[in-house]
Amino acid sequence: MPAGIKGVSMLCSALLARTRAAAPMAQETVHYSHSEKDFILSPHSKKAPKRMASLMELKEIFRSADAVCFDVDSTVIREEGIDELAKFCGVGDAVAEMTRRAMGGTVTFKAALTARLGLIRPSYEQVQKLISDNPPQLTPGIRELVSRLHQRGVQVFLVSGGFQSIVEHVALQLNIPTANVFANRLKFYFNGEYAGFDETQPTAESGGKGKVITHLKEQFHFKKVVMIGDGATDMEACPPGDCFIGFGGNVVRKQVKEKAKWYITHFDELLKELEER
Ligand SMILES: [Mg+2]
Fold this sequence. Notes:
The chain is α/β, with parallel strands linked by helices.
């Protein structure tokens, strides 16, 4: 790192440095594969459509998961953090268009992030002022859902292509420890000017959310990890994630809605799943 650069957060806290103790819960075995042809149907469900069978399996995994990872932008919060930052810095329209292209999966995540941040060039002060003046708006039902998961002993993580300082603010509101936040880290010069972002974070790459899930499984021996999110980058994290739940409560991504076996538009649907058993 060039002299004169400081990080808002600790730049050196790479994935492997995370040592938070976790106690994975004992899990029952669920027969599940990511290939539809491998789903095992009971004698009573031979005539059931494959889609229904796979959905049932996914729901069983969600109910017995030992870790749930949430995307943040347009999932846990109503807006896209980087778009809000761009608006705040006066380049909202240009950056919103770049975000739309990134979500559609037509450019690599890192290339899109580099281009957008190159336009925004947010200062340290602007990021702090955004958080204090326009704090992220929680999606209805998320507070209750996270609380319920915590009550059940489920580990909750925020895995975001957004920025650490903003996502940590969200985590604080949901009683999620900052050690459970995986996001991108902005860098600033001593005078507060934008100095780039930490390109070594897994969340800076296409496929980065999957890498985070793999890391979580290795470190904490989680057997079943659920990923919930609105975007293509969330869906592609499964596998290694065991269950993807598409979320369309804030914005509907056509590709995700069409491909996700389980797609919801309100977190109440997941709360009900937890109450039924
Ligand atoms: Mg999102």
